[in-house]
Amino acid sequence: MTEPTAGHDPQERLEAYRAKRDFSVTAEPEGSKWGTASGRFVVQRHRARRLHYDVRLEVDGVLASWAVPKGPTLDPHARQLAVHVEDHPIEYFDFEGVIPKGEYGGGDVIVWDWGTWEPAGTDEPGRAIQRGELHFDVRGEKLAGRFVLVRRDRDRSGKEQWLLLHKKDDHARPGWDPEDHPRSVKSGRTNDEVAAAPETLWRSDLPAGEAAVPLAAGPPPSWDPPTGDELDALEAMGKAGRWAVGGREVKLTNLDKVLFPPRGEEAAVTKRDLVRYHAVIAPFMLPYLFDRPVNLHRYPDGVDRPGFWHKEVPGHAPEWLNRWRNVEADPGETEWYAVVDSVPALVWMANYGAVELHPWTSRLPDVHRPTWALIDIDPGPRSSFEDVLVLARLYRTALDHLGVAAMPKVTGQRGVQIWVPISFSYGFDDTRAWVEKVSRAVGRTVPDLVSWEWHKDRREGLARLDYTQNAINKTLVAPFSARPAAGAPVSVPIEWDELDDPALRPDRWTIITVGERVRELGDPLAPLVGRHQQLPAL
Ligand code: MN
Hints:
Layout: H1 10-26, E1 39-47, E2 51-59, E3 62-68, E4 80-89, E5 97-99, E6 107-119, H2 125-131, E7 133-140, E8 144-154, E9 160-166, H3 191-196, E10 200-202, E11 212-214, H4 228-236, E12 241-245, E13 248-252, E14 258-260, E15 269-270, H5 271-285, E16 294-298, E17 308-310, E18 323-325, E19 336-338, H6 343-351, E20 354-359, E21 372-378, H7 385-402, E22 407-410, E23 416-421, H8 428-445, E24 464-466, E25 492-493, H9 514-521
Antiparallel strand pairs: 1-2, 1-6, 2-3, 3-4, 4-9, 5-6, 6-7, 7-8, 8-9, 10-11, 12-13, 14-15, 16-17, 16-20, 18-19, 21-23, 21-24, 22-23, 22-25
C-alpha cells in the first residue's frame, strides 16, 4: 500500500510518474469481467466554471464518474457532496491539459491521483452503482483505504447527488485536505502550470480515441541564413536561373525586374533584392510562418500595378513546398494552402511575387485555436501617426496594468499593431471579445480619435481599433514582410519604449535597411513566439 504523499520531490515525482506509466500500460481494461480483479481509478482536478475533482472508477469498460466540489479526502469525519455525472470514455483516463473555453467542461485538468480500486462486498460494482451504494478500496498515490459512495437525492437539474466518505481505517487522516496536495501525479505540475503551458487539448467533438490532441508547444525551430557562397551565386546569376539555397534548388525568373519604385533618393528595388531579402531575413520571419496556412498578397508585375489575394497553391509549385489541406473548404473555396517553413520556401514566395505574407493566427493542427490575439490600430485618412502613437501608448498602459505580455510592430504603412501571444485554450470568439473589450476601454479615453463605425465612409476619417481580424482565415501581415509601396518598406516589431522615439515612423525600415537593425537589436517579439498566456478576465 502506498502511503499518501504530496510528492513534492521532483525525483520522487518522476519515479512515481514512470512507475505509473508502466502500470497504465499493463493495466489495460480487462473487459467487463470483474470478480476480484481490480480496475483503475483516477481523480482529476478540474477548473471549469467551478473548481471540482472528478472521481472516476473504471467499470465495465467506461469511467463511472462523480464530480466532487470539495474533493475526496482521507478525513473520516467528512461527508463530501459527489454529483453523479455521465460515464467518461476510457481514453479520458490520464487526460491532462486544457478543454477549450465555451465547450463542455472548458478549463484545465490535471491528473490529481490515480491507482487501482476494488469493490468491497460485491462482485458487481455496476449493479451496486445502480442500486445507489458502492463500498470500495483504493490504492493511489494520495488516496488509500476504504471509501463509500452513497446516493442521497437528485438536484433541480435531475442529477443524482451522492455522498463520498472515507471509512475509519488505517488510512484515515482526520483533517486531511486535498487542496494541500495540489500537484499532478502524472507530471508534477499544478493546474496553473498546466494552464500556462498545456501539452494536450481535449476535443470532445472528435471520437474518444482521437480527442486528446497534442499541442505543438514551446519555442519554434531555428533556421540558418544563406551562406556567403549562396548569396554570391544569387548576385552572379543573370536574369533567371536555378538557385541552390538551403538544400533546395529554386527556379528564379525576371530577377532584374523593378518590383518597388524608388522612394526619394533611395534606389528602386528589384525582384533580386526581394529574393535576397527573403533568404536573409528567413531566420527572423519563419518563426511567424511555420506550421500555419498563409494568405498571399501578390504583386507579380510590381507594386505600381494592382495586387491580388492568392491562397490556393498553384499546380506548378515545387513538390517540396509544404501544404495544408483545408478539409472544411466549401466548393470554390481554397483547399490547399502553402505552409512556409524553410528558407527555400520563402525564396520561392519572393519569386512568385508574394510581396505580403499573411499567416493565420492559428497554428496547425487545430486551425480553430488562435495562438495570437491581434490588436490592429487602423488609421483613417484624418489620423496622424501621432494619433496612432497616442492609441498605441494607451494599449501599452492597459496591457501593462493587466500584466499581459505583448509587443507592438509598425506595419510598414501607416499603422501599428500589437501582437499578444495566448494559450491554446481559446477560440476566436474569445480573442475577438477580449480584444474588443480592451479596445473599447482604450477608445473611450480618446473619443475624438476613434470611430466604431463599420463602414469606412461613416468613420469621418478617424482611426478604427479593429478587433474583427481575430477570426479564422483573417490575418495581419507577418512581422518582417514587405509592404507594397515605394522603397519596399517592412513591417517591424519594436520595443514598447520605441513608441516614444521621435524618429519612429511606421515605414521607417525597408527590405534594404532592416537587416542592420535586426543584426544589432534582434527581434523583440521573438521571445513571445509560442508563449502560452492566459488572458485575464476584464
Ligand atoms: Mn469535470
